[in-house]
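> forwarded from #structure-qc
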């Protein structure tokens, strides 16, 4: 295998539907700064070919013929703590991210196969996962409504919009561009969000991941 450049994100794909697997391989293979190392269809093949250190992010279906992506992701993450994981599903199973063991909870992203996810969204989710962050499906986020009495409901309208964009994987610069405000203003909003949601500054936890998970936990989807 060629030596890994820090600027290239190495991808493993685990998807049992051949047509969708080929589509992912072609789409990601054409993305700059991304290299597909292997594309397989089963847990067994993933364990055989996607060895620790050979990939930076694994893109996988949740439902596989000989297991599921959640269990496989937990196993692979414990073997390679820095591995990013992007889950794909034909169903709205985003709440499964709330049940991840605490030692592997960062760096998981979730996109729906049935939403209008673009190659740009897919690539952004992969890069966020490689950084240990979480990206949630924008179409599913659009359907979220804060639960009555939750901390998320107490956010201001602008703070809630910032939180949603954060959960989509946008950087502070990206959020600022989307809303027409400065990066400093974005960071001020994020600090206020963390305070309202009581997200601490524990260096062992990524606060953006914690905020994204709170968005899932304290909202419903219409």
């Amino acid at each position: 295998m060629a030596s890994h450049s820090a600027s290239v994100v190495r991808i493993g794909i685990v998807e049992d539907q051949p047509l969708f697997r080929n589509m992912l391989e072609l789409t990601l293979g054409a993305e700059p700064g991304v290299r597909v190392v292997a594309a397989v269809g089963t847990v067994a093949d993933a364990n055989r070919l996607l060895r620790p250190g050979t990939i930076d992010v694994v893109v996988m279906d949740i439902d596989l013929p000989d297991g599921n992506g959640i269990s496989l992701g937990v196993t692979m993450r414990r073997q390679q703590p820095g591995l990013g994981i992007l889950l794909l599903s034909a169903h709205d199973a985003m709440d499964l991210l709330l049940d991840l063991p605490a030692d592997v909870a960062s760096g998981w992203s979730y996109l729906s196969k049935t939403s209008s996810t673009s190659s740009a969204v897919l690539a952004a989710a992969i890069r966020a996962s490689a950084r240990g962050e979480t990206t949630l499906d924008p179409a599913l986020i659009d359907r979220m409504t804060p639960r009555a009495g939750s901390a998320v409901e107490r956010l201001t309208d602008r703070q809630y919009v910032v939180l949603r964009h954060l959960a989509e994987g946008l950087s502070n610069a990206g959020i600022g561009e989307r809303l027409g405000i400065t990066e400093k203003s974005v960071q001020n909003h994020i600090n206020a969000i963390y305070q309202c949601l009581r997200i601490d500054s524990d260096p062992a936890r990524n606060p953006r991941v914690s905020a994204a998970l709170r968005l899932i936990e304290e909202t419903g989807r219409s």
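QC bot note: Strands lie at 9-14, 34-40, 57-61, 63-64, 67-68, 84-89, 108-112, 144-146, 219-221. The CA atoms of residues 2 and 181 lie 42 Å apart.
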